[in-house]
Design a protein that fits this description.
The complex is a heterodimer of chains A (299) and B (286). Chain A has 299 residues and is mainly α. Chain A has two domains: 52 residues, no CATH class; 184 residues, MetI-like (MetI-like fold), CATH 1.10.3720. Chain A is built from twelve helices and no strands. Helices cover 69% and strands 1% of the residues of chain B. Chain B has 14 helices and two strands; from the N terminus they run ααααααααααααββαα. The longest helix of chain B has 32 residues. Classes of the chains: A mainly alpha (299), B mainly alpha (286). Chains A and B meet through helix 1, helix 3, helix 4, helix 5 and helix 6 of A and helix 1, helix 4, helix 5, helix 6 and helix 7 of B.
């Protein structure tokens, strides 16, 4: 074989480098520089209103004051608690509903394809638009109350979005509506992938449907279940669009999650040095959590 | 045979209930988009699930050809925001797909850029809100604030992980024999990629691009922070649609919401087959 026929390792390596270059540049562009900048700003009192260009932020140096401040920032901690609460309720509910639906869709029945296409629609709706849909539904004279009145027989006129507890519930309903389909979609794919021969063997051995599900199907789906839960936990932590359109974090701070809180202090209070400190703290905590989770999963 | 029958009935009841719950919010908005003003806020006994007097006024209103019975006139129509959403989402998709596809091929065939899979997952993990301050500062420095190209660039970066992971699993799955045959024939590696691999991957490329487009089109937070007036996207514009006189412009917002909701739903149905792969970073192939 002539050298021209089979490319040498040099050509491959060079081409590989060139192919990966744009992605590497983009990753560097969005990680290294912003992180350094964030770190620098977070050690100062700098704000876009301070009249200084950001490179001169050192004139407002405050060392770790921002970081000690955030430890005693009650609004931050309650926003974090609220985010975790939403996550702790929404993700399990979405998981159970999604799993239940996936089981119902496991074998064929007339109309399956159409119903499947309809059921996965919500996750394709632009989240901000979904937020607006639920904003309309939960008006005090809106259709949610109308439906509840029709079902219960008593006229219901609840002002969902102006009550602190109900507003949070309404936001969670919207999240569950939009993201149960994602769980359903992923879990169904996992369920269909479980080899049928073992299920059949267990049936012959006299295992009932529940036993088959718990001892054979679930263990085989564990990796997929972890992926589905991980995706939803990560996305739920970022929750912003639907919630912000529905309540703007209100009434008061009743539905203020981490992202909403950061958004507000970024755009209204403009204390960017402090925001940078919060943001960096979140990034560090998430990175540690991510590494820990990956190590555990590798085991 | 009673048990299978009751199961079938149970299944249909549950699934139809779920379908109804799925459709109610969508139907309500779709119906609102065609309601005339008096029906917008009709409550109690007057509340209707379907417009009594369907009208296209809401659509005319947001495109500025009619102020209908509203006393307000829009200071700008929905045309520019739609253009902004289209441009930024498409060019963002192009950036993500070009960088993602070539990097995926580089890693899949030559093992280059071994750091990328994890780096890109991390990029996806972090809440965008936590990096927006430096991004806003950089964008201001580059004069990218309130431009569609500034949005397109950040969209390209934010969705790069999806483009990369999707294309990587597609390349990993692709049989190598044809590429190897072409190499033996004396084709250069670059030529094989350009003339053989890419044309063969046309369908996966299209699915991945549509998937990435849906993600870009769905953004609200980034556009909220990076655009202020000239190039606001549909969701940002929609949130601003209210007037001090009449309050929320329900019908107008619903009409715009419907316009924003249709493309991703249609595209999503088109690429249904690859949704699972895309959403799980290729961990699960349907």
């Amino acid at each position: 074989m002539s050298p021209a026929a089979k490319p040498g390792p040099d050509e491959s390596a060079r081409l590989g480098l060139r192919l990966t270059l744009p992605a590497q540049v983009l990753v560097l562009f969005i990680s290294v520089f912003p992180l350094l900048m964030q770190l620098y700003i977070s050690l100062t009192d700098w704000s876009p209103l301070s009249g200084l260009a950001w490179p001169r932020a050192w004139e407002m140096w405050n060392t770790f004051a921002n970081y000690t401040d955030l430890l005693s920032d009650n609004r931050l901690w309650s926003a974090l608690g609220r985010t975790l609460l939403v996550m702790a309720i929404c993700v399990p509910v979405e998981f159970l509903l999604g799993l239940g639906l996936a089981i119902l869709f496991a074998d064929n029945f007339p109309g399956k394809r159409l119903l499947y296409s309809i059921l996965i629609m919500p996750m394709m709706v632009v989240p901000a638009v979904a937020g607006y849909m639920f904003y309309m539904l939960f008006q005090s004279g809106g259709p949610a109350n109308d439906l509840l009145s029709a079902i219960s027989g008593i006229p219901v006129t609840v002002a969902w979005l102006s009550d602190p507890t109900l507003a949070l519930a309404a936001v969670m309903v919207a999240d569950i509506w939009q993201w149960t389909p994602l769980m359903f979609l992923i879990l169904l794919a996992g369920l269909v992938g479980v080899p049928q021969d073992q299920v059949k063997a267990a049936t012959l051995l006299g295992a009932n449907a529940w036993q088959r599900f718990v001892t054979i199907v679930l263990p085989r789906m564990s990796a997929i279940i972890i992926i589905a839960l991980a995706i939803r936990v990560i996305e739920c932590f970022k929750i912003f669009d639907t919630l912000f359109i529905m309540t703007g974090g209100g009434p008061g701070v009743a539905t203020e999650t981490i992202s909403v809180y950061i958004y507000k202090i970024t755009t209204q209070d403009l204390i960017w040095g402090y925001v940078a400190a919060i943001a960096l703290a979140i990034l560090i905590v998430l990175s540690v959590a991510c590494v820990w989770a990956m190590k555990r999963m590798a085991k | 045979m009673t048990r299978p029958l009751t199961f079938a009935a149970f299944r249909y009841i549950v699934i139809l209930l779920a379908t109804a719950i799925t459709l109610i919010p969508i139907l309500w908005m779709a119906s609102m988009a065609f309601k005339p003003i008096p029906e917008w806020q009709a409550t109690g006994a007057n509340l209707t699930w379907f417009p009594r007097n369907p009208t296209l006024d809401n659509f005319r209103f947001i495109f500025g050809t009619s102020t209908s019975d509203l006393i307000v006139a829009l200071d700008r129509t929905a045309l520019k925001p739609i253009l902004s959403s289209l441009l930024s989402a498409s060019v963002g998709t192009l950036i993500a797909m070009v960088a993602g596809t070539s990097a995926a091929y580089g890693l899949s065939r030559f093992g280059s850029g071994a750091n990328l899979p994890l780096a890109l997952i991390q990029l996806r993990l972090f809440p965008p809100m936590a990096v927006m301050i430096p991004v806003m500062m950089m964008w201001a420095f580059l004069n990218f604030m309130d431009t569609w190209w500034g949005l397109a660039l950040i969209y390209g970066i934010v969705t790069l992980p999806f483009a990369f992971w999707l294309m990587k699993t597609f390349f990993d799955d692709m049989p190598r024999e044809i590429e190897e045959a072409a190499l033996v024939e004396g084709c250069s590696r670059a030529r094989v990629f350009w003339r053989i691999t890419l044309p063969m991957m046309r369908a996966p490329l299209a699915s991945a691009a549509l998937f990435v487009f849906i993600l870009n089109w769905s953004d609200y937070l980034i556009a909220l922070l990076l655009t202020t007036r000239d190039w606001v996207t549909i969701p940002v514009y929609m949130a601003s649609l209210s007037s001090s006189m009449t309050g929320q412009l329900y019908g107008a917002k619903a009409a715009l919401g419907l316009i924003a909701a249709v493309p991703p739903v249609v595209l999503g149905v088109l690429i249904q087959r690859h949704l699972v792969r895309g959403l799980t970073f290729g961990a699960l192939k349907q």
